[in-house]
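pinging the channel bc i need a second pair of eyes. not urgent but kinda urgent?? the chain im working w is below, pasted from the shared doc
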Amino acid sequence: MAVEPTLVPDDTTTSLPRRPFHFTPGTDGAVDAIIAAGPREMFRTLLQERESEATLLLARRVLHAFFGHAHEQVGDLPGAVGELIDRARADLAPALESLSAAEPGIRADLLRQRGVIALLDGCWLDAVSQPATQPAVVVNRLFAHHFDLAGGGEPLASAQHRRARALEDAGAALPDVAAADFLDRAGARPATILLACLPLSLAVLPGNFLPEVVGLHHAFHRLGVDDLLLGTPPPIPAGDLDDLLAEYAAQASPEDRERVLAAVAVTLSCEREHVRLLTELAEFRRTQTLESRVAEVISRHAPLAGRQHGGVSLGDRHLVDVFAGFGRAAGGAEPDALAAFLTEFRDSPYLAERDDGDCWFLAATRFGGPMFGIFDETEAEVLAEWVATVHKGDRPSITVRLNTVGDELAARWSAAFAEAAPGDVVFDDSPPADERDLFHRLVNIENHANTLPVAIERAERCFADAQVLFEHGAGGRYTDASFFEYDADALYARAEKIYWEKLVDPYEPLSEVPDVEEVLFRQSTYQLTYLIDGAWLHRVGRLGRRERESDGMLFRIHADEMGNGDLRKNHLTLTRRAMVSQGRDLPHIRTEEFADQDELPDDMYGFALQQLSMCLFPDRFYNEILGYNLAIEMFGSGEMRLHEIQKLRHHGFDDCYEQAHLTIDNFSAGHAKQAADIIVAYLDRVRRTSGEAVVAGEWHRIWRGYASFAYFLEQPLLRDVAVAGSTEDDSAELVL
């Protein structure tokens, strides 16, 4: 019979409870070392090491430096924000107009500098949708923006790609932000890098800083520095940004509104600082002498000159000895030393004009010469221009003025990060008391980074144990985890066989529906994992991890699970509807109260814990997540779902959750088929980039991810395997 939809109130959470941040003792020393290593190491850590405790503590310290003392008096939140942004836009307009009108070469330098921040756009939304925050209204509104910025999971349609293309069209092309030479190619000043650590840190701790995410997201896009510099349309319409802020303000407490306004003020201050830096950089480039530009080129390459220059002398010194005192970054060498070198080099035989108008030095940089490929096109043009002036007889006194733009700002922020000591940081290595405590920690992992080693160990152990099904998995009721050699056709054939023989063909309508108590109990065994639906993918496809086709495909599946930002279609909303119709209105899973609930059975925590453990490591366990994704999406189809729908309808319960998965997970074009396509796309990339021999090892890991799902689902089979093993070897023991 048809059942009326269950109405549940919206989750109007606007911030998470304030909790301490727990780290293993010694993590503070690791973070001190990262900060001491300088801006580049901080940037690299925040972007590429998001699975480590040190990164979470680094982010906490950075955010404390930016927001720890920021306060704004709150009146009408949308109005106050609008006034701050309008004032900032008016103040910055002359500078931005001047920067946009700069000479093409200088403008390209400025855009590359700004690209360090511009290409981070939206990273603060990468993990805003997580078990601790969903299905809050504001989180879904933010996720809708995230979905649009990500191009709906199509990398070439993403705002980041469009912005990268705009930079390229302006002569300021940059590699991917995760590329090893990204900061070098951008010519990134230390202050630029440190300002970029603000959005990168919010990307690490978005749950605990949800009001700040809202404030920065709104201010960054409404001010639109990058759109004004590039002449591109805003990636998010102003009306959508204003609607989100107004809705948030209507739901938020005074404290949360104050935090939003403070974040807006901090963001605008940082944008002012960076526009000021760009203005100073433009002036430096405009007034920089040709000799200073040459000095930058020499200083950049000299430390890498190597012993091959051992036979080359300048005056009475070997060139290797001269270069030994030059630092790698532009400005690393002392200005006087560079000036002295250029003066002596200018008068050396290496620059003397030959009969053909050339000189030994320039000839050496061209194809066939010993320095071919050392200098890029722009650097070669600078050197050629300088040599031409020398040949014309220009011999000005050389004074080298090094680029120190933003260095005072960088020193101030570096000191702030080094001194940041947030009072909510706790160092302890106490293990979880039990599985409920572990569940609570993993849901609130931003506050329990000290639990990351436990999660890694647990996930690894499960993947290893699940390989018992490589031999015995064919006997599974709903899965077949028996191992097979990979090729695309074999994977599709196995998936289709499972779909028909284990999920669809066995289906017969129940001739007798169990009583209501049995139906409710069976539902209770599923609902812990329903409450974390989609979590296995929520960290995949973050900034710096979007280059593979499989990343975008996985993101689209996660977006579907979250309703693509539409709260009505969010699977966690459907879960709440179903549970309330059954008389279960539990506290949110992030709360301490949930850890004390007795509605859901304890013996189901293992399944949920495995999902929560592996999802925290999308780099380490990428392959396993692909296999797990195939298993869980296929399980959404067929007999089990149909039986649950029949039972729920019979007793008048809302079947929206089961119905949604029955349709969306289909093997025709739904998530089950997409999950197989993702594996094929990923392994095809591996084959093309690393060779056929590497595919086998990658596939083995993918399939143990599939087996890890079956490991929890196929308990009767595992008991049979354990019993059979015990008859042959009394010491054999299966650990579940």
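so Residues 254-287 form the longest helix (34 residues). and The first strand starts at residue 21 and ends at 23. — does that match what u expected or am i reading it wrong
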